Amino acid sequence: MTNSDPTVPVAAAAPRRGVGDAIRSWWDRQSRPAQWGVGVVAFAALALLPVLDPPLISTTATDFGATMAQFAMVALIAIGLNVVVGQAGLLDLGYVGFYAVGAYVVALLTSPASPVWNSVDHGIFSGPWAWLACIPLAIVITGITGVILGTPTLRVRGDYLAIVTLGFGEIVRLLADNLKEVTNGPAGLQGVLFPELGTSADKPDGVFSVQNNDRINSGIWWYWLALLLVVIVLLFVGNLERSRVGRSWIAIREDEDAAEIMGVPTFKYKLWAFVIGAGIGGLSGAVYAGQVQYVDPKAFTVINSMLFLCAVVIGGQGNKLGVIVGAFIIVYIPARVQGIEVGGQSLGDFKYLFFGLALVALMIFRPQGLFPARARLITFGRQVYAAAQRVGDAARRDPGPPGEGGDPVVGAQKEVTS
Amino acid sequence: MTHRFPDDPREPARPVWQPPGTGSGADGVADGIHQVVESPTEQVAEVLADPLATTVVDPVAIDPALADPELVAEVVAPQRDIVTAEGDALLQVRDLTVEFGGLAALSDVSFDIRRGEILGLIGPNGAGKTTCFNAITGVYTPTRGTVSFDGEPLRKLKRHKITRKGIARTFQNVRLWGEMTALENVCVGTDARHKTSVWGATFRTPRHYREERDAVDRGMALLEFVGIAARATEKAANLPYGDQRRLEIARALATEPKLLCLDEPAAGFNPSEKSALMGLIKKIRDDGYTVLLIEHDMRLVMGVTDRIVVLEFGRKIAEGTPREVRDNPAVIAAYLGVPDDEIV
Known about the structure:
The complex is a heterodimer.
Chain A: H1 10-13, H2 18-29, H3 32-52, H4 64-87, H5 96-110, H6 130-153, H7 158-178, H8 180-183, E1 189-190, H9 218-241, H10 244-254, H11 256-261, H12 266-292, E2 294-295, H13 302-315, H14 322-336, E3 341-342, E4 345-346, H15 351-365, H16 381-397, H17 408-417
Antiparallel strand pairs in A: 1-2, 3-4
Helix pairs in contact in A: 4-9, 4-12, 4-13, 4-14, 5-6, 5-7, 5-12, 6-12, 9-12, 10-12, 13-14, 13-15
Chain B: H1 24-30, H2 43-49, H3 59-62, H4 69-76, E1 89-100, E2 103-114, E3 118-122, H5 129-136, E4 144-149, E5 152-153, H6 159-165, E6 167-169, H7 182-191, H8 198-203, H9 206-226, H10 241-254, E7 259-263, H11 271-286, E8 290-294, H12 298-304, E9 307-312, E10 315-320, H13 322-327, H14 329-336
Parallel strand pairs in B: 3-8, 3-9, 6-7, 7-8
Antiparallel strand pairs in B: 1-2, 1-4, 4-5, 9-10
């Protein structure tokens, strides 16, 4: 029987270490308004980063705005993948497949090179609002893909599920590569539409067009758009997390059999995790297709799946804010070192090597990721935990004589240990 | 019975759960007391009935909020209709046979669990106790035979549906969700009675708020009931072993079961913890639950159960009151193997 001495505060007994923990405990000490204040300022700073273009931080070899846009898209993916891997505990190695489906939905519906849609009247899928009209469709179709993949495969667990999903990712890519009549094959689909907003004389296609080379260029506009989507998705996922759904996911991750026996409809919630993860991945793919205006199968290789997973693992599985940091590391660091040459080789070319090493180091020193998940799974958690903490502290401060005060278990243990 | 919380989810700043003795929480509970079935025992009677209980650190004596079993029953299960008809069969096991390949782990076992009793299921190691448990709770599909609960056969029901019908269990090896806090563990149990799903949680419907309040209130009440409310915010994995066992019981009770199945709840306990647990199990029964108990510890089984079913090599060899079972030569030969005056 350990930890039975009621005078030792348990928070002190559990050692806290590492930068992530330090940041978290600092964050937890702040009041609610202070947290909002810090959050808004940090968010504004993050959003304005590519506009300010600070010399040391800015990327040299690639456009900083475009890099940040890519970061925001990978952040979306990481949040979606975090629902599947981090919360529900379903190892999905083919997540890039959902990303591809989302991108291809937009491309097939709006690209003039699309063999299917070029011959029919486009209706709402042409003109300035075409891209926006495609977004809900991309999310829904990707979600349906999630159902199609999940219904048969979620009956297997663990490693088997990982292998099946790995196959799914490859299947999607190979279909895109080989179904020339539908996807135009390896040639890809050019001229994908994008939102035409803020058109002017020098920017005939609006601020989201690649022709926008102002100080606030198209990359930054896409970054802001994707960042807005990140916030919306975070609110959505946060609502799910602090509810019956989030609790069921974590319970499934921790012990699926126990969860089912305690009344959690495990298959239903695993499928929901898959569908929600897929939908978010599809959303990210749709943003990608609009930004690059070109979709081809090479962008959706398995190694990208691994990179996305890497973002989740580095950031901290189950922590939706942590995985955004993971996404930043995955996207930004290779872009930052891209221009730096060592022995005639750009450092950016070594990114898979670095991430491999980083993962090995992480597994040794901090297997839970930089920002490990903390359980906050109850809607009224903040108030309840504050109240419960007070009771707990009071009980520990003043345990009272055995059999008179404190809870019976503590009393019973004290008899034995003393 | 009406729910004791207003349905408006945005009611400002009303504390969701309050520590015992701080007022409004207890007041709200008091509403429905008279509707509960009358408590069968006073504390004195309890002590008289079982001399062992005198050594129990009685939770009731410690926390006045727990003094009234009716009150606790009301808090932990506001929607539960407590059936007063004690004695009729709640669960009927008929010719239950479970075979793994050629091995019959359980053959033609029949017994009833009556409403409001504590039934002990005992037997030597490998007798098929846990197999029987698993067949009842749907973990194994029986090869032959039926299990009916409340008059309905359970065969083919999914495991989580069996739980919703009213059978909850704990595990021989503690199987909590370690990364979740104690309160969250119990809340998942309460969720078995909830209906909010993805849409409700996303759009924060009134039902979502209502059910979250219910989860927290009943969750905290149950943690108080089993005596670990002070550790509600700790991760389940960090709790001491005894508290983990108690948390498992609270989590099972949170599903509002009619039948609570405890699989060796005292495994690894020292004698003082065991007697505390005995008190808890009796209290659970007094609150209107029916309990099925697997246990090795004879002292605990004899002290707490109303009837006992004895298994050996997958067959039922005896059934009856603790005294009858204790005096049964077959049981003594098969299992106890010691003179009966040394048993209790």
